[in-house]
Amino acid sequence: MSTNTLVNTPTLAQRARNIRRNALRMGEVQGQGYIAQALDISDVLAVAYFHAMRYRPEEPTWEDRDRFLLSNGHYAIALYAALIEAGIIPEAELETYGFDESRLPMSGMASYTPGMEMSGGSLGLGLSIAVGMGLGLKQKGSKSRVFTLFSDGELDEGSKWEAMMSAAHHKLDNLVAIIDVNNQQADGPSKQMMGFEPLVDKLEAFGWFVRRVDGNDIDAVVAAFDAASLHTEPQPRVIVADTLMGKGVPFLEQREKNHFIRVEAHEWKLALAELDAGDRS
Amino acid sequence: MKSAISTMPGKPKLTTSAMIASIAAEGQKTKPAPFGHALVELARSRPEVVGLTADLGKYTDLHIFAREFPERYYQMGMAEQLLYGAASGMAVEGFMPFATTYAVFASRRAYDFIHQTIAEEDRNVKIVCALPGLTSGYGPSHQAAEDLALFRAMPNMTVIDPCDAHEIEQIVPAIAAHHGPVYMRLLRGQVPLVLDEYNYQFKLGKASLIRDGREVLIISSGIMTMRALEAAKELAGDGVDAAVLHVPTIKPLDNEAILREAGKPGRLVVVAENHTVIGGLGEAVAALLMRSGVHPAFRQIALPDEFLAAGALPTLHDRYGISTAEVARQIKGWLR
Which domains are assigned to chain A? Predict the structure, then answer.
């Protein structure tokens, strides 16, 4: 899709707001969901889908598209929200989120959803698949790129580091990884579960081109994606995005941090109202 | 054991717990690297065929392919989870990866990666693994006694256990013609040549009656078909007439052929497999017979449910009852 110069095109901030809205509406449908993660990653997804990536909404399997692999399958609610905003999934389908027979199950799976390119859920798989797709695209002589999003908790998985070594070894300059550092995994703060800092040093030592940014600062995220695109060395790229769980909904930003944040039934409307209020202010 | 080490000239060979040992008997007809050569042949007409390995190219005969198609060969390092995740990614991009390692590493270390990125997504990846069952004397680290049970339990997975070089050559194009994930047990190096003498043709999903007989029906897969055929000759010398039904495709099972043969009255049915007694061909056949109301006298020849010893393969095959002599001895005992 890349940049669009039409005057009425929504700004990236508006895109991010719409993605958050879609996610909150899906959360409300089920009364649950990994909503705090969806809110933290919406700015990154807005930049990925409305600034960085090439794709055709009406043709999700278009051969020349940039691929997007969601390794952290529990972020499916966030990716569905972005795919709806991108016109790949009809907005009306949002009402089916998580129900039987829906194309939008709670954990992302490749065979269910247009635009969902891998089955996540079991954490640590995405980067290995991305390496294979990167190799395959090069073998085909394709100019497409592979973007893959994973969480800081996935850094605990040894397979991630196998894939990191391999991506650099095979000089996969068509690979862009995005790590969501929200410092929250199932049992508590990620850095307390398994220390992964200094992350930039580690990734650089593994042979990657690294940009670390505030993942909720859209201009900074745009600059990081641009740097990844403009970089010319034959090496994989990674954007480390430090994000805030619940971003955009102040009472959720302040809620005690949990992997699976509790939202009471009456709070979904409040959350949407706060999001809209924040947008107006 | 052609590679047995002899330190004292003139003495008989010592036993050895070597990792790599030929399963060919002394003087047996063999063919080198049938998988590697068949893959090269396939790849000439199928540009989407690629080869991936995890530091075991030379030991899975994939080096033959690498030599011929270096630009289609991917060394993924000693990283089996990466190997199968990346193979899935290449399949997404339209390639047909043949991804090799040892059976223990695919089935045990990379199981979740194969389950999620290949089987669940129904990717066209061929998982080809050396040292299946008890074909290494190195100990449990390299003895994949449970690989068939693990892969049988995985939806979408086709599971194949070839007997010899002749069959491996035929399996390679057959699994390429089948779209979807396949687990194939691999015999590598100097591989016995047996089935060429029986005018045998592999068909995916089909069992094949290689030898008929009135008193015993041996249902077998993999190298145990070779052993069953040898044992049947031995039994014939003792006046026992044994049939051998070869079942190279463990999943999907050829129910029709198995029920047809096992349903013939008056024969002892023996399932022989190079695999633990749990969850392999034996239990698959037993369940099929029970479900279908076919109740012949039934016995299993299989590896015991225990961690196997290190040692020379002939020693271990005798100890665990899967050598030719032991197969014949057990069957004679059951018929008594």
Answer: 12-280 (3.40.50.970)
